[in-house]
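Box 4.2: Ligand-aware structure prediction
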Amino acid sequence: MSKSWTQLRERIVLSAERALKRTGSVGPLELLQELGFLYSGHVEGWTKGIPALTPIEPHIQCGAEKLAEVYRVFSQWVEVKGLKTVEAEYSRRGVGGVVALQVTVDGNDERERFFRTHCAAAELTPKKTERLQQKLTKAPDLVVFITVADDAKCSECGGEIERGEFLFLEQQRPLCIVCADLDHLVFLPAGDTAMTRRAKKHSPLSAVVVKFNRSRKRYERQGLLVSSEALAQAEDECIADADQRAARRKVAANYRVVIDQRLVEQMTAAILEEFPHCPAAEARQIAAHAAERGSGRVGRSAAGRELDPKAITLAVIAHIRHVHTDYDSLLMRGVDRQDSREQIRGSLDNVLGRWRGE
Ligand SMILES: [Zn+2]
Protein backbone atom coordinates (compact mmCIF):
# COMPACT_ATOMS: atom_id res chain seq x y z
CA MET A 1 0.00 0.00 0.00
CA SER A 2 1.46 3.35 -1.00
CA LYS A 3 2.39 5.91 1.56
CA SER A 4 -0.06 8.52 0.27
CA TRP A 5 -3.04 6.18 0.74
CA THR A 6 -1.95 5.40 4.29
CA GLN A 7 -1.70 9.13 4.93
CA LEU A 8 -5.11 9.68 3.42
CA ARG A 9 -6.65 7.09 5.75
CA GLU A 10 -5.08 8.72 8.77
CA ARG A 11 -6.38 12.06 7.61
CA ILE A 12 -9.89 10.69 7.16
CA VAL A 13 -10.01 9.24 10.67
CA LEU A 14 -8.53 12.37 12.24
CA SER A 15 -10.97 14.61 10.38
CA ALA A 16 -13.96 12.46 11.33
CA GLU A 17 -12.92 12.59 14.98
CA ARG A 18 -12.42 16.32 14.87
CA ALA A 19 -15.82 16.93 13.27
CA LEU A 20 -17.52 14.60 15.75
CA LYS A 21 -15.89 16.33 18.68
CA ARG A 22 -16.77 19.78 17.48
CA THR A 23 -20.46 19.40 16.72
CA GLY A 24 -21.46 16.16 18.42
CA SER A 25 -22.16 14.34 15.19
CA VAL A 26 -20.61 13.80 11.79
CA GLY A 27 -22.02 12.78 8.41
CA PRO A 28 -20.38 12.41 4.99
CA LEU A 29 -20.84 16.09 4.08
CA GLU A 30 -19.33 17.28 7.35
CA LEU A 31 -16.39 14.91 6.92
CA LEU A 32 -15.75 16.12 3.36
CA GLN A 33 -15.73 19.72 4.56
CA GLU A 34 -13.34 18.86 7.36
CA LEU A 35 -11.08 17.15 4.83
CA GLY A 36 -11.18 20.20 2.57
CA PHE A 37 -12.83 18.25 -0.28
CA LEU A 38 -16.02 20.26 -0.04
CA TYR A 39 -15.99 24.01 0.41
CA SER A 40 -18.13 25.06 3.36
CA GLY A 41 -19.22 28.22 1.52
CA HIS A 42 -20.71 25.98 -1.15
CA VAL A 43 -22.59 23.94 1.46
CA GLU A 44 -23.90 27.14 2.97
CA GLY A 45 -25.09 28.40 -0.41
CA TRP A 46 -26.74 25.05 -1.05
CA THR A 47 -28.65 25.19 2.24
CA LYS A 48 -29.83 28.66 1.24
CA GLY A 49 -31.19 27.39 -2.08
CA ILE A 50 -28.66 28.89 -4.50
CA PRO A 51 -29.57 27.22 -7.85
CA ALA A 52 -25.94 26.83 -9.04
CA LEU A 53 -25.12 24.84 -5.89
CA THR A 54 -28.07 22.45 -6.05
CA PRO A 55 -27.54 19.52 -5.80
CA ILE A 56 -24.31 19.73 -3.87
CA GLU A 57 -22.65 16.45 -4.86
CA PRO A 58 -20.94 17.74 -8.04
CA HIS A 59 -19.21 20.34 -5.88
CA ILE A 60 -17.23 17.73 -4.00
CA GLN A 61 -13.68 18.33 -5.17
CA CYS A 62 -12.13 14.92 -5.02
CA GLY A 63 -11.47 12.17 -7.57
CA ALA A 64 -13.82 9.18 -7.68
CA GLU A 65 -11.26 6.69 -6.38
CA LYS A 66 -10.21 8.87 -3.48
CA LEU A 67 -13.85 9.66 -2.66
CA ALA A 68 -14.73 5.96 -2.55
CA GLU A 69 -11.87 5.52 -0.09
CA VAL A 70 -13.19 8.37 2.07
CA TYR A 71 -16.62 6.72 2.32
CA ARG A 72 -15.10 3.26 2.92
CA VAL A 73 -12.78 4.41 5.72
CA PHE A 74 -15.57 6.51 7.25
CA SER A 75 -18.01 3.56 7.36
CA GLN A 76 -15.32 1.37 8.85
CA TRP A 77 -14.50 3.97 11.48
CA VAL A 78 -18.18 4.26 12.42
CA GLU A 79 -18.41 0.49 12.83
CA VAL A 80 -15.20 0.06 14.80
CA LYS A 81 -16.17 2.85 17.21
CA GLY A 82 -19.70 1.49 17.47
CA LEU A 83 -21.17 4.92 16.84
CA LYS A 84 -24.88 5.62 16.98
CA THR A 85 -26.55 6.74 13.81
CA VAL A 86 -29.05 9.58 13.66
CA GLU A 87 -30.83 10.57 10.48
CA ALA A 88 -30.48 14.23 9.66
CA GLU A 89 -32.72 16.22 7.35
CA TYR A 90 -31.27 18.63 4.85
CA SER A 91 -33.93 21.19 4.24
CA ARG A 92 -34.47 24.81 3.56
CA ARG A 93 -37.32 27.05 4.60
CA GLY A 94 -39.17 28.80 1.86
CA VAL A 95 -42.28 30.92 2.18
CA GLY A 96 -43.97 27.98 0.44
CA GLY A 97 -42.95 25.71 3.32
CA VAL A 98 -39.97 23.51 4.08
CA VAL A 99 -38.16 22.23 1.03
CA ALA A 100 -35.97 19.11 1.14
CA LEU A 101 -32.48 19.66 -0.20
CA GLN A 102 -31.13 17.11 -2.63
CA VAL A 103 -27.54 16.02 -2.23
CA THR A 104 -27.08 13.67 -5.18
CA VAL A 105 -27.57 14.32 -8.88
CA ASP A 106 -29.80 11.29 -9.44
CA GLY A 107 -31.76 11.66 -6.20
CA ASN A 108 -31.36 7.95 -5.46
CA ASP A 109 -33.07 7.17 -2.13
CA GLU A 110 -30.34 4.98 -0.76
CA ARG A 111 -27.54 7.41 -1.59
CA GLU A 112 -29.55 10.34 -0.24
CA ARG A 113 -30.00 8.42 3.02
CA PHE A 114 -26.27 7.71 3.14
CA PHE A 115 -25.57 11.45 3.07
CA ARG A 116 -28.24 12.18 5.68
CA THR A 117 -26.91 9.64 8.15
CA HIS A 118 -24.98 11.27 10.95
CA CYS A 119 -22.97 9.40 13.55
CA ALA A 120 -22.79 10.31 17.19
CA ALA A 121 -20.95 8.99 20.26
CA ALA A 122 -22.13 5.53 21.33
CA GLU A 123 -22.49 6.57 24.97
CA LEU A 124 -24.97 9.34 24.18
CA THR A 125 -27.94 9.21 26.58
CA PRO A 126 -31.43 8.84 25.08
CA LYS A 127 -32.21 12.42 26.05
CA LYS A 128 -29.10 13.77 24.35
CA THR A 129 -29.78 11.61 21.31
CA GLU A 130 -33.24 13.10 21.08
CA ARG A 131 -31.84 16.61 21.31
CA LEU A 132 -29.31 15.82 18.59
CA GLN A 133 -32.09 14.41 16.42
CA GLN A 134 -34.03 17.63 16.87
CA LYS A 135 -31.01 19.71 15.98
CA LEU A 136 -30.32 17.68 12.85
CA THR A 137 -33.89 17.78 11.59
CA LYS A 138 -34.81 21.32 12.48
CA ALA A 139 -35.82 23.40 9.47
CA PRO A 140 -33.58 26.44 9.18
CA ASP A 141 -34.78 30.04 9.25
CA LEU A 142 -36.28 31.77 6.26
CA VAL A 143 -33.47 33.46 4.39
CA VAL A 144 -33.61 36.69 2.43
CA PHE A 145 -30.66 37.84 0.35
CA ILE A 146 -29.36 41.32 -0.25
CA THR A 147 -28.76 41.32 -3.99
CA VAL A 148 -25.14 41.71 -5.07
CA ALA A 149 -25.75 41.14 -8.78
CA ASP A 150 -26.94 43.78 -11.23
CA ASP A 151 -29.30 41.73 -13.35
CA ALA A 152 -31.73 40.02 -10.95
CA LYS A 153 -35.39 39.89 -11.97
CA CYS A 154 -38.41 38.79 -9.97
CA SER A 155 -39.78 35.57 -11.48
CA GLU A 156 -43.34 36.52 -10.57
CA CYS A 157 -43.85 40.21 -11.37
CA GLY A 158 -40.85 40.54 -13.68
CA GLY A 159 -39.63 43.61 -11.80
CA GLU A 160 -35.94 44.40 -11.54
CA ILE A 161 -34.36 43.57 -8.21
CA GLU A 162 -31.64 46.15 -7.97
CA ARG A 163 -28.32 45.68 -6.26
CA GLY A 164 -28.76 46.19 -2.52
CA GLU A 165 -32.43 45.22 -2.55
CA PHE A 166 -33.95 42.16 -0.92
CA LEU A 167 -34.38 38.95 -2.88
CA PHE A 168 -36.06 35.73 -1.83
CA LEU A 169 -35.58 32.30 -3.41
CA GLU A 170 -38.69 30.18 -3.78
CA GLN A 171 -37.99 26.77 -5.31
CA GLN A 172 -34.81 28.24 -6.72
CA ARG A 173 -36.65 31.11 -8.44
CA PRO A 174 -35.90 34.67 -7.36
CA LEU A 175 -38.80 36.68 -5.99
CA CYS A 176 -38.88 40.33 -5.07
CA ILE A 177 -39.77 41.05 -1.47
CA VAL A 178 -43.29 42.16 -2.40
CA CYS A 179 -44.12 38.98 -4.35
CA ALA A 180 -42.59 36.89 -1.53
CA ASP A 181 -45.09 38.58 0.83
CA LEU A 182 -42.34 39.65 3.15
CA ASP A 183 -42.57 43.35 2.39
CA HIS A 184 -44.55 44.09 5.53
CA LEU A 185 -41.52 43.15 7.60
CA VAL A 186 -38.95 45.72 8.63
CA PHE A 187 -35.21 45.34 8.62
CA LEU A 188 -33.34 45.16 11.90
CA PRO A 189 -29.58 45.39 11.30
CA ALA A 190 -27.40 42.83 13.08
CA GLY A 191 -25.27 43.98 15.99
CA ASP A 192 -27.57 44.31 18.95
CA THR A 193 -28.08 40.81 20.26
CA ALA A 194 -30.74 41.69 22.82
CA MET A 195 -32.82 43.52 20.22
CA THR A 196 -32.39 40.71 17.71
CA ARG A 197 -33.38 38.01 20.19
CA ARG A 198 -36.42 39.91 21.44
CA ALA A 199 -37.63 41.02 18.01
CA LYS A 200 -37.37 37.48 16.66
CA LYS A 201 -39.25 36.11 19.64
CA HIS A 202 -42.14 38.55 19.22
CA SER A 203 -42.40 38.39 15.44
CA PRO A 204 -44.98 35.94 14.06
CA LEU A 205 -42.89 35.76 10.87
CA SER A 206 -39.19 36.48 10.58
CA ALA A 207 -36.36 35.98 8.11
CA VAL A 208 -32.59 36.11 8.36
CA VAL A 209 -30.99 38.57 5.94
CA VAL A 210 -27.66 37.57 4.41
CA LYS A 211 -25.33 39.07 1.84
CA PHE A 212 -22.62 37.40 -0.15
CA ASN A 213 -19.18 38.78 0.62
CA ARG A 214 -17.26 38.40 -2.63
CA SER A 215 -13.77 38.72 -1.22
CA ARG A 216 -14.42 36.30 1.62
CA LYS A 217 -16.59 34.09 -0.60
CA ARG A 218 -19.20 33.52 2.04
CA TYR A 219 -22.63 34.64 3.16
CA GLU A 220 -22.64 37.07 6.01
CA ARG A 221 -25.58 37.77 8.26
CA GLN A 222 -26.77 41.34 7.91
CA GLY A 223 -29.75 41.33 10.20
CA LEU A 224 -33.31 40.18 10.54
CA LEU A 225 -36.65 40.97 8.94
CA VAL A 226 -39.34 41.18 11.62
CA SER A 227 -42.79 42.69 11.98
CA SER A 228 -42.81 46.35 12.95
CA GLU A 229 -44.93 45.51 16.02
CA ALA A 230 -42.28 43.00 17.17
CA LEU A 231 -39.56 45.58 16.58
CA ALA A 232 -41.47 48.18 18.60
CA GLN A 233 -42.01 45.71 21.44
CA ALA A 234 -38.34 44.73 21.43
CA GLU A 235 -37.36 48.42 21.46
CA ASP A 236 -39.59 49.03 24.46
CA GLU A 237 -38.09 46.11 26.32
CA CYS A 238 -34.55 47.20 25.52
CA ILE A 239 -35.32 50.75 26.60
CA ALA A 240 -36.92 49.48 29.81
CA ASP A 241 -33.80 47.67 30.93
CA ALA A 242 -31.15 50.03 29.64
CA ASP A 243 -30.33 53.60 30.45
CA GLN A 244 -33.33 55.40 28.98
CA ARG A 245 -31.89 58.20 26.95
CA ALA A 246 -28.83 56.38 25.66
CA ALA A 247 -31.01 53.53 24.49
CA ARG A 248 -33.50 55.86 22.85
CA ARG A 249 -30.77 57.66 20.98
CA LYS A 250 -29.42 54.36 19.77
CA VAL A 251 -32.82 53.13 18.74
CA ALA A 252 -33.53 56.33 16.88
CA ALA A 253 -30.23 56.23 15.07
CA ASN A 254 -30.25 52.59 14.16
CA TYR A 255 -33.75 51.53 13.48
CA ARG A 256 -35.88 54.41 12.47
CA VAL A 257 -36.36 54.60 8.77
CA VAL A 258 -36.43 57.92 7.01
CA ILE A 259 -39.96 58.61 5.96
CA ASP A 260 -41.09 61.13 3.43
CA GLN A 261 -43.77 62.94 5.47
CA ARG A 262 -45.50 64.64 2.56
CA LEU A 263 -45.84 61.38 0.69
CA VAL A 264 -47.35 59.83 3.81
CA GLU A 265 -49.94 62.59 4.09
CA GLN A 266 -50.91 62.24 0.44
CA MET A 267 -51.11 58.48 0.63
CA THR A 268 -53.17 58.57 3.82
CA ALA A 269 -55.68 60.85 2.10
CA ALA A 270 -55.75 58.61 -0.97
CA ILE A 271 -56.37 55.51 1.17
CA LEU A 272 -59.22 57.17 3.05
CA GLU A 273 -60.80 58.27 -0.21
CA GLU A 274 -60.82 54.69 -1.48
CA PHE A 275 -61.60 53.16 1.94
CA PRO A 276 -63.65 55.73 3.88
CA HIS A 277 -64.30 53.34 6.80
CA CYS A 278 -60.67 52.41 7.34
CA PRO A 279 -59.62 53.76 10.77
CA ALA A 280 -57.52 56.89 10.19
CA ALA A 281 -54.65 55.60 12.34
CA GLU A 282 -54.45 52.46 10.26
CA ALA A 283 -54.57 54.39 7.00
CA ARG A 284 -51.62 56.40 8.25
CA GLN A 285 -49.80 53.28 9.31
CA ILE A 286 -50.30 51.74 5.87
CA ALA A 287 -49.11 54.91 4.18
CA ALA A 288 -46.06 55.33 6.42
CA HIS A 289 -45.13 51.73 5.89
CA ALA A 290 -45.52 51.91 2.13
CA ALA A 291 -43.50 55.11 1.99
CA GLU A 292 -40.43 53.92 3.85
CA ARG A 293 -37.32 54.73 1.93
CA GLY A 294 -35.46 51.94 0.21
CA SER A 295 -37.97 49.34 1.20
CA GLY A 296 -39.01 48.47 -2.35
CA ARG A 297 -42.66 48.61 -1.37
CA VAL A 298 -45.53 49.90 -3.47
CA GLY A 299 -45.27 53.34 -1.94
CA ARG A 300 -41.83 53.84 -3.41
CA SER A 301 -42.71 52.49 -6.81
CA ALA A 302 -43.68 54.96 -9.54
CA ALA A 303 -47.34 53.91 -9.28
CA GLY A 304 -47.33 54.44 -5.53
CA ARG A 305 -45.82 57.87 -5.86
CA GLU A 306 -48.53 58.81 -8.29
CA LEU A 307 -51.07 57.40 -5.83
CA ASP A 308 -52.50 54.98 -8.36
CA PRO A 309 -55.71 53.47 -6.85
CA LYS A 310 -54.50 49.97 -7.75
CA ALA A 311 -51.24 50.46 -5.86
CA ILE A 312 -53.19 51.91 -2.93
CA THR A 313 -55.49 48.88 -2.87
CA LEU A 314 -52.50 46.51 -2.96
CA ALA A 315 -50.93 48.24 0.04
CA VAL A 316 -54.24 48.02 1.93
CA ILE A 317 -54.65 44.33 1.06
CA ALA A 318 -51.11 43.56 2.23
CA HIS A 319 -51.80 45.36 5.51
CA ILE A 320 -55.12 43.54 6.09
CA ARG A 321 -53.52 40.16 5.35
CA HIS A 322 -50.76 40.67 7.85
CA VAL A 323 -52.66 42.51 10.56
CA HIS A 324 -56.26 41.28 10.38
CA THR A 325 -55.88 37.64 9.31
CA ASP A 326 -53.86 34.52 10.24
CA TYR A 327 -51.77 34.86 7.08
CA ASP A 328 -48.39 35.25 8.81
CA SER A 329 -48.81 32.36 11.19
CA LEU A 330 -49.92 30.16 8.29
CA LEU A 331 -46.73 31.06 6.39
CA MET A 332 -44.57 30.51 9.46
CA ARG A 333 -46.10 27.06 9.93
CA GLY A 334 -45.02 26.28 6.40
CA VAL A 335 -48.39 26.46 4.65
CA ASP A 336 -47.96 27.17 0.95
CA ARG A 337 -48.33 30.83 -0.06
CA GLN A 338 -51.27 30.17 -2.43
CA ASP A 339 -53.05 27.92 0.11
CA SER A 340 -52.56 30.53 2.83
CA ARG A 341 -54.12 33.16 0.57
CA GLU A 342 -57.08 30.89 -0.13
CA GLN A 343 -57.63 30.23 3.55
CA ILE A 344 -57.72 33.88 4.53
CA ARG A 345 -59.62 35.14 1.47
CA GLY A 346 -62.95 35.31 3.34
CA SER A 347 -61.66 37.43 6.21
CA LEU A 348 -59.73 39.64 3.79
CA ASP A 349 -62.83 40.35 1.67
CA ASN A 350 -64.80 41.06 4.82
CA VAL A 351 -62.47 43.79 6.00
CA LEU A 352 -62.09 45.24 2.50
CA GLY A 353 -65.87 45.44 2.12
CA ARG A 354 -66.30 47.02 5.51
CA TRP A 355 -63.64 49.65 4.86
CA ARG A 356 -65.15 50.45 1.48
CA GLY A 357 -68.47 50.98 3.25
CA GLU A 358 -70.29 48.18 1.44
ZN1 LIG B 1 -42.09 40.51 -7.76
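In the box above, the bound molecule is zinc ion. Residues 154, 156-157, 159, 175-176, 178-179 surround zinc ion (CB under 6 Å).
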